[in-house]
Design goal:
The structure is a single chain. The chain has 13 helices and 23 strands. It is of the alpha+beta class. Among the domains are: 211 residues, Roll (Pnp Oxidase, Chain A), CATH 2.30.110.10; 104 residues, UbiD C-terminal domain-like. Strands 5, 6, 7, 8, 9, 10, 11, 14 and 17 form a 9-stranded antiparallel β-sheet that branches. Helix 1 packs across helix 3 and helix 4 crosses helix 9. The relative contact order is 0.12. It binds flavin mononucleotide (FMN) and manganese (II) ion.
């Protein structure tokens, strides 16, 4: 484990691997950053060094691929989920330090958020610019326990923001609890975090579980925090930027149309007013933005966390479960593939129902054997083609309560689909219908030996 707890390690890795494109020409934060990020695609992280009127550069799509996300955590795509399962069972509590790079520059209210931070405006019909990579730290007013999650923040001008928080998320519950005490909820929004903190903020863990303990476990060391200046919270010492603010349950702000991960606009109604008390940042801060909507980084961060927490929940009751994958086409939210080792009769269907119960977003879940790579869409389709009988292995459950993000919901209900594409006991036996057609095993081993020995180096 390295000692780096900033975003800059991941930025350096992207640069060294050739994945970072530096844009030096002047760009407008209104729509141009969005258009460039979308145009560049998943493989390219972008660093805009000359955003018009801005004090700092902007990085987008830093963690746009599984390879880069895994590498930033010292893993590969093949090892990442096992690592996440291991850290979810543990946790390393953060530690407090006295001084921090994130407080090198301090702006106290009155201030204008848009004059300090180069916040992009993403889509034509949204109301304004959104902070999208802001990790919101808050404390449960009843238990004192910390909660950490992302919710987009709309700039309203001056020190005013609007937070759009799903009512089912923990942060909404904390806000309701603070309102019951007649007080606003103090929040701190950390922007430009180590990928461990970003991914931890997306974990579907129980209320009261501190996501920063998970970040520490991912880092292999306590996350260093520093006391905020104007709110009673501690913030990541090596983040790029922190916004200190209060969130108000009694200040509804109509949001208008807003993008969601399916790639469409939705209208959720009113969000909650936020009043900024201070902004602190590094002297040479880099503003991180995650392009929202059906875009790779947004889908991947959530999908990676949802897959790991679902896998953990399933394995507790069905040990045959090996891995869970959320697909890119399913936006990292709606479609899952579960791999299982020799599931017993009916166990695949049970795993599907458990997964859908665990994460209500899931509406299409496929179970495959563990000889299939669940992250490979062609392999998964092969399993469906080769091993599924629809009348036996496919089921539809109509009218299930749906998440508000579900694109096809009908008055917040939707039909869910489960597919069990696993082989039957005895399939593959010699002489049987599903024996794989292969050259003799001894010949395959011998030929593989000399072919691999003679293989040219990849770059030769
Ligand atoms: C880029 C990005 C943007 C997100 N925006 C929002 C948002 O605007 N509102 C929201 O409720 N959740 C949003 N989420 C999802 C939550 O952060 C996530 O579900 C989190 O686990 C909720 O945690 P909590 O229940 O501890 O509050 C976003 C996630 C990502 C990766
Ligand atoms: Mn939480």
């Amino acid at each position: 484990m390295t000692d780096d707890q900033s975003m800059r390690g991941a930025l350096g890795q992207a640069r060294r691997s050739g994945a970072l494109r530096v844009i030096e020409r002047p760009v407008d934060r209104r729509f141009e950053i969005a258009a460039a990020t979308s145009h560049a695609g998943a493989a390219t992280a972008l660093l805009f060094t000359s955003v018009i009127g801005a004090q700092m550069p902007v990085v987008t799509n830093l963690l746009g691929t599984r390879e880069r996300l895994a590498a930033a955590l010292g893993q590969t795509p093949a090892t990442l989920q096992a690592r996440l399962l291991a850290v979810l069972d543990g946790g390393i509590a953060p530690e407090l330090v006295a001084a921090a790079p994130v407080q090198q520059v301090v702006h106290l209210a009155p201030l204008d958020v848009g004059a300090i931070l180069p916040v992009p405006t993403w889509f034509e019909h949204e109301r304004g610019p959104y902070i999208t990579a802001g990790v919101i730290i808050a404390r449960d007013p009843d238990t004192g326990r910390r909660n950490v999650s992302i919710a987009r923040l709309l700039l309203l001008g001056g020190d005013r923001l609007m937070a759009g928080i799903a009512p089912t998320h923990h942060l909404s519950e904390l806000l309701r609890r603070s309102a019951a005490h007649g007080r606003p909820l103090e929040i701190a929004v950390a922007i430009g975090n180590h990928p461990a903190t970003l991914l931890a903020s997306q974990m579907y863990v129980e209320l009261g579980r501190d996501e920063l303990d998970i970040a520490g476990a991912l880092l292999g060391a306590p996350l260093r925090l520093v006391p905020a200046r104007t709110v009673d919270l501690a913030v990541p010492a090596e983040a790029e930027i922190v916004i200190e603010a209060t969130l108000h349950a009694d200040q509804p702000v109509e949001e208008g149309r807003v993008s969601e991960f399916p790639g469409f606009y939705v209208t959720y109604g009113a969000g909650h007013g936020v009043t900024v008390r201070a902004i602190t940042h590094r002297r040479d801060a880099i503003y991180q933005a995650i392009m929202p909507g059906y875009e790779p980084e947004h889908c991947l961060l959530g999908g990676t966390a949802i897959a790991a927490t679902t896998c953990r929940a399933l394995r507790r009751v069905i040990p045959a479960v090996r891995a869970v994958h959320l697909t890119d086409g399913g936006m990292g939210r709606l479609h899952a593939v579960i791999s299982m080792h020799q599931p017993r009769r009916g166990e695949g269907k049970r795993a599907i129902m458990l997964a859908m119960g665990h994460v209500n977003l899931l509406k299409w879940v496929t179970v495959v054997d563990d000889d299939i790579d669940p992250t490979n869409p062609q392999h998964v389709e092969w399993a469906v083609a080769a091993r599924m009988r629809a009348d036996r292995d496919l089921f539809v459950v109509p009218g299930v309560r749906a998440d508000r993000c579900e694109p096809q919901h009908d008055e917040l209900t939707v039909a869910k689909v489960g597919i069990v594409a696993t082989s039957q006991p005895g399939d593959g036996a010699a002489g049987g219908r599903f024996e794989r057609a292969l050259p003799p095993a001894a010949v395959r081993a011998r030929v593989a030996d000399w072919m691999d020995a003679a293989a040219p180096a990849p770059d030769a």
